[in-house]
Design a protein that fits this description.
single chain, alpha/beta, UDP-n-acetylglucosamine1-carboxyvinyl-transferase, Chain, 2 domains, four-stranded mixed beta sheet, 24 strands, 32% helix, globular, binds shikimate-3-phosphate
């Protein structure tokens, strides 16, 4: 599926923020383990969480979606079951890594598969700690296809993360929760803490301490959780496309409702503030243990920024759209310490550079980042151009937003993956004044 932009548009009006993908994935798994009746509202009905939902039902969970889109968790009558058919996590790294932890903890025998992108992503980061925990598993050079076998896990397991990864942290916590064993995860750099918040929200015995500057997360043995209805907050990673779109286009005012404001995810707002963005936060409140707010954005004159070190995990999913903001900012933007971008749904540093080549944006590559030479003026292209999304939702949406600042239409190719995280992107941007068409 290719999508083409319309020149000379802007983003304005009021938007509902789509549900948070990370939280939607986690709540399905944790609610299935709690195994009692529960309603989940605000869920993201996108391909990634829906793959997790069907995988959970395949191993015996009883999850339904009602006519209003509310997720209904039913009480299972039987224990979880093995499945001869592989669990297919599609494009979702979070789905796969977290499900590996949960199902290993349950002692199931399963095999896992995914699409071409997921099959080429590194899984050693979760395979290594799970094997240390006692899980017996097979993989193809630490990639998919992966098989797990029923195993007895260590009663107490301590692991220090060698890379900053919320997925690895959550995989271990879910293995501990599902097996009833105690686990301690030490994270040197803070990553998104949705799993910890959700476990606490449902009553788990979880302790978090800061020791010598590191986060030490301890889940006690036999942590039992209690069912209650859950509200998923909006996804700030999805909101970021709209925010940057309003900042770089002639937007009078764009308001985005119900955006998740967890401080392990709001690095994008700090970065944009440093760049000179005119953004206001209103109506701050808390739902199901996660803060949320409404965000008001006006067109702004942006300037370049330097990003490296501990902020990077906080903005890792937003770097493609920050790169677009940087391309239309005054001065240089430097992004370093971001080599993780090379192993996301695509090699995002390569994909950003390839798109910039087409647009004529000047940049310099590093192994772990990029330097972007920005220019606030609209891009004058002599012809309509086509940009490869590399089958990556965040690359596709980033370059479609760049189309707001181009005098000619841009066609972004292979955009199907937008459905993994932001299924109503086309309809929503169109309703906000930016016509993009299949
Ligand atoms: C996610 C964590 C991040 C992020 C991904 C979602 C999660 O990955 O890039 O899109 O839901 O835990 P890492 O934890 O591997 O950095």
């Amino acid at each position: 599926m290719n999508i083409t932009s319309t020149p000379n548009c802007s983003l304005h009006g009021v938007a509902n923020c789509p549900g948070d993908k990370s939280i939607s994935q986690r709540v399905l798994m944790i609610a299935s383990l709690i195994n009692d009746q529960m309603k989940i509202r605000g869920f993201l009905h996108a391909d990634d969480p829906l793959c997790t939902l069907s995988s959970l039902n395949q191993i015996g969970a009883d999850i339904e979606i009602d006519k209003k889109g509310i997720i209904r968790i039913k009480k299972r009558k039987k224990p979880f079951i093995n499945s001869k058919k592989p669990l297919d996590l599609g494009n979702s790294g979070t789905g796969l890594r977290l499900m590996l932890g949960m199902t290993s903890g349950l002692g199931l025998e399963l095999s896992f598969q995914g699409d071409t992108s997921l099959s080429s992503r590194p899984m050693g980061r979760v395979i290594k700690p799970l094997i240390k925990m006692g899980v017996s598993m097979e993989s193809l050079n630490e990639m998919l296809p992966i098989k797990i076998f029923p195993s007895k896990l260590k009663r107490s397991f301590i692991y220090e993360l060698p890379i900053a990864s919320a997925q690895v942290k959550s995989c271990i916590l879910l293995a501990g929760l599902a097996s009833g064993n105690s686990v301690t995860v030490i994270e040197p750099i803070q990553t998104r803490d949705h799993t910890e918040r959700m476990l606490k929200n449902f009553g788990a015995k979880l302790e978090i301490n800061s020791i010598e500057g590191k986060n030490v997360i301890h889940l006690k043995e036999g942590s039992s959780l209690h069912a209650k209805d859950y509200q998923v907050v909006g996804d700030i990673s999805s909101a970021s496309f709209l925010i940057v779109g309003a900042l770089i286009s002639k937007s009078k005012k764009l308001k985005i409702l119900d955006v998740g404001m967890n401080s392990t995810r709001t690095g994008i707002l700090k970065v944009l503030d440093q760049m000179g963005a005119n953004i206001h936060i209103t109506n701050l409140r808390v739902e199901s243990g996660e803060p949320l707010a409404d965000i008001v954005v006006h067109e702004s004159h942006l300037k370049g920024v330097e990003l490296r070190g501990s902020i990077i995990p906080n903005i890792i999913d937003e770097i493609p759209i920050i790169s677009i903001a940087a391309a239309f900012a005054e001065g240089e933007t430097i992004i370093r310490d971001a080599s993780e971008l090379r192993v996301k749904e695509s090699d995002r540093l390569k994909a950003i550079s390839a798109g910039f080549n087409k647009l004529g944006v000047k940049y310099k590559n590093f192994d772990d980042g990029i330097k972007i030479y920005g220019n606030p003026a609209s891009l004058i292209l002599s012809n309509p151009i086509s940009i490869d999304s590399y089958d990556d939702h965040r690359i596709a949406m980033s370059f479609l937003i760049a189309g707001l600042k181009c005098n000619k239409p841009i066609t972004v190719t292979k955009c199907m993956n937008i459905f993994t995280s932001f299924p109503n992107f086309i309809e929503l941007t169109s309703s906000l004044g930016y016509q993009i068409e299949k």
